[in-house]
Task: inverse folding
């Protein structure tokens, strides 16, 4: 099995927007928006799909939250000799736009997503997700979609497990990979946005604070018990634990 770290964009934010206890007065940072390509003997999987390519613009801390989509995932796949049609599984950690923005480029893929997030989208009770068009292929019943309850062993061999880490959204998931050479890698998605938050700091817009704190505890316990490499996917320093595309971890 191989793991590539892809560019899903980046954004500038005031850090207190990511802390409901206002731990970072006056601080802002540029955070990354990572996506991941996993090659397994049973198929090619994409975990998260970044910002829409239409969301391009200058990154300016003075303007609060701004974003840039970066290089389209389709182009990054082409650079690896692959195309969107080669992706058989699209696993989305949660419904926020910075993780679902290029999902519509993979209509042939089987969509894996937390059932509670899917229900939130269908009832329009999904904060920070204003455009359902990018998932309409699946939500409308045309595409193959498997709502995920709890953990899911994707390939049935323990190599790639979607981990239930609710709180950021009701159906939020991370991904635990067991790579043959690198060993266990835990992609915690938005359980925390940067490594310093592992002490128990969460945004005010998380859907359930208690669940968020429990998910942070689960992540830390799994990392300790498995001696796993933890990747906080929005942290520009933390993601460098994995090689940048076109290099890969195996």
Result:
């Amino acid at each position: 099995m191989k793991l590539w770290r892809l560019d899903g964009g980046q954004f500038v934010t005031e850090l207190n927007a990511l802390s409901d206890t206002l731990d970072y007065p006056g601080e802002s940072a540029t955070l990354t928006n990572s996506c991941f390509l996993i090659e397994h003997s049973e198929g090619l999987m994409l975990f998260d799909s970044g910002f829409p390519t239409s969301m391009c613009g200058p990154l300016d801390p003075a303007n609060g939250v701004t974003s840039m989509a970066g290089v389209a995932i389709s182009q990054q796949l082409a650079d690896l000799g692959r195309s969107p049609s080669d992706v058989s599984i699209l696993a989305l950690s949660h419904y926020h736009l910075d993780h679902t923005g290029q999902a519509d480029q993979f209509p042939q893929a089987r969509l894996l997503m937390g059932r509670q997030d899917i229900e939130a989208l269908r009832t329009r009770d999904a904060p920070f997700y204003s455009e359902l068009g990018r998932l309409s292929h699946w939500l409308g019943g045309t595409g193959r979609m498997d709502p995920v309850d709890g953990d899911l062993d994707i390939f049935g061999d323990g190599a790639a497990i979607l981990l239930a880490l609710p709180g950021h959204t009701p159906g939020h998931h991370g991904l635990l990979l067991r790579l043959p050479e690198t060993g266990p890698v835990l992609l915690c998605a938005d359980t925390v946005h940067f490594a310093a938050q592992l002490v128990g700091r969460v945004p005010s817009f998380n859907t359930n604070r208690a669940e968020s704190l429990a998910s942070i505890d689960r992540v830390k316990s799994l990392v300790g018990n498995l001696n796993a490499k933890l990747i906080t996917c929005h942290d520009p320093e933390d993601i460098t634990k994995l090689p940048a595309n076109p290099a890969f971890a195996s």
Summary: The chain has five helices and twelve strands. The chain has one domain: 2-241.
